[in-house]
Amino acid sequence: MAGSRTWRDGRPSRQRSSGRREGSQQEQLLRAAGRGDRQAREAVAKANLGWVAGAAAARADRGLAEADLFQEGVVALLEAIETFAASGEADFEAFARRRVAARMEVALDEEQRAVRDTEMLVRAAEDYAAAELTIERELGRRATDSELAARLEWSMERTVTVGEMVAEARRRYDEELLQYLDPADIEVVTGLPDWISVGSLPPRPRE
Hints:
Elements: H1 2-9, H2 11-34, H3 38-58, H4 66-84, H5 92-139, H6 145-152, H7 156-178
């Protein structure tokens, strides 16, 4: 009786029919997308953006912003749409989820590697500046590249590269500092040698 009652109200029949129609429609769109149909690609993408956003949110605490992860996921989703028809696989969502997850993981690995590289460069710059200051105090002059390389136990190439990086950082700092100086607060004295500062001049005699 239960079986006949279920059949009479038609719900299972409609659900199965609706599922087949939806599946058939997506298959047609995927085939069209594989042939380069832009509208078909966009239609499939919009239907799958929800779980892509969920995958980005689930990884948002690992070093990349959720928006950046979502962008990576969308790129992978579009690639999956374009290549699914020729992949020989039957389940598009499973195929796309693997591609999206893989691309997000690669982006996270690259970000973590970039952070580590930046931290190493900062430490190298700090070591260089400390060695530079120590040698200058010991010898009373600026250190040469060879002296710095010997003190730091670095190759000459690395010493020169880090030195250029430190010099560039100092130049940028000086430029940024100048932006905060008001020209009206700087007293300009012309006709004097560079080694004479305004503070070293004697007071002007009274008339």
